[in-house]
Amino acid sequence: MYKHIKSLTSMRGIAALIVVILHFSYYALPKTGSTLSNYSDFFKNGYLWVDFFFILSGFIMTHVYAEDFYLKVSLDNYRSYLFSRFARIYPLHIFILSLFIGLEFVKLFLPNHSAFTGKFNLTALFANISLLQAFDLNCPPLFWCNTYWNEPAWSISVEFVIYCIFPLLLFVLLRSSEKNDLIIYSFTLFSILLLITFTRGNLDSIIGIPSIARCGLECILGIITYKVYRRGNYRKYFNLNFLAIIAIIWIILIMHYYWHHWRSLHDWLILPAFSILILAISVNHNGAISKFLNSRLMLYLGTISYSIYMVHWFIQELLKLFWIYAFHNAFGKGFTEYEALTSLVVFLMMVLFAASLTYRFVEVPARNYLKSTILRKECIERQ
């Protein structure tokens, strides 16, 4: 039985909140983004925390499933694993998608609004229901697709593809030696740099089909990082607090600046820092960073992080629609800097409240129901 790594749960919450702030500040209410960028481009670079999610996902799934797939990939284990992953991501996804469908029906009764058009067309809806929104072949050059009803859900579409091949990746990579792990990690990093350079020039724009490679390669970084964690050799040479501080400073320096030139290099340079941060905080100790991450508040934020990530875009869309209907103006038009920043705080409170509800009444019950159903079915089949 694997041991829960609490600090990584908290990091999921931090990463989700950074993505939420990015989306609100630079998409829903750009006035907020311009105000924040006067001080730092940290949140403008917030999309990089999706890449943190991908690396972290590879690390945590290796932690959970290494014993299951080290010796072989059996059909029973693979089926159980894949259904568990499906139960983890799909119920909340389909619930949020149903809210978007309801919003489109509301538009039918509003003046000057068209429903089920643009990115909210029915073909895109089918792709989203099927978790195929990353496979739109009708948008050359396949590097930018307009098939996302719930914008953040593009990442779970590509993650599920990687979930399907993840046991095979584990089966192969868990057998590599320490020397080969370094080679694999370096080659994977170089491959990501090539992917960034020869697609859109930055990680933010790598969506659609190339995002599958983005997710898969970063998942491999997570697997190799976990192998280093399990060996524990690095603890002889590095103080864990010091290692975490180095990683945090590294990440902050990268995210503080928005390189308009050498953009591909900027985004790529943060990836090793994410691996180092995950490595440093995975071991429980009495340092200030561990105590902060293991606090009840941070652990709760991490626990509801998937709901935070999935629900916030719908709240944005609902807020913008309500604002136009109520005030006959685009949301935030004419806001002062103070009003824009206040709106961000209020929005975050709304997201956290909504995420708490969806976690408690949708995400957990649906996941438990699906898992209990498949377990019951397996027991019947074995009788």
For this entry, give a set of tags.
transferase, 383 residues, mainly alpha, Acyltransferase, acyltransferase
Q: Rg to the nearest angstrom?
A: 21 Å
Largest sheet composition: none
Residue share in helix: over 70%
Low-confidence stretches: none
Total E-strand runs: 0
- What percentage of the residues does DSSP assign to strands (E)? under 5%
Question: Average pLDDT across residues?
Answer: 91
Distance between the termini: 25 Å
- Form type: globular
Organism: Nostoc flagelliforme FACHB-838
GO molecular function: acyltransferase activity
Keywords: Acyltransferase, Membrane, Transferase, Transmembrane, Transmembrane helix
Transmembrane segments: 46-66, 87-110, 153-175, 182-199, 205-226, 238-259, 265-285, 297-315, 340-362
Topology:
Blueprint (H helix, E strand, L loop, with lengths): L5 H23 L1 H8 L10 H22 L5 H33 L14 H8 L24 H20 L4 H20 L12 H22 L8 H17 L6 H19 L6 H6 L2 H8 L1 H23 L9 H46 L1
Helix pairs in contact: 1-2, 1-3, 1-12, 1-13, 3-6, 3-8, 3-10, 4-6, 4-13, 4-14, 6-8, 7-8, 7-10, 8-10, 9-10, 13-14
Keywords: Acyltransferase, Membrane, Transferase, Transmembrane, Transmembrane helix
Organism: Nostoc flagelliforme FACHB-838
Protein name: Acyltransferase
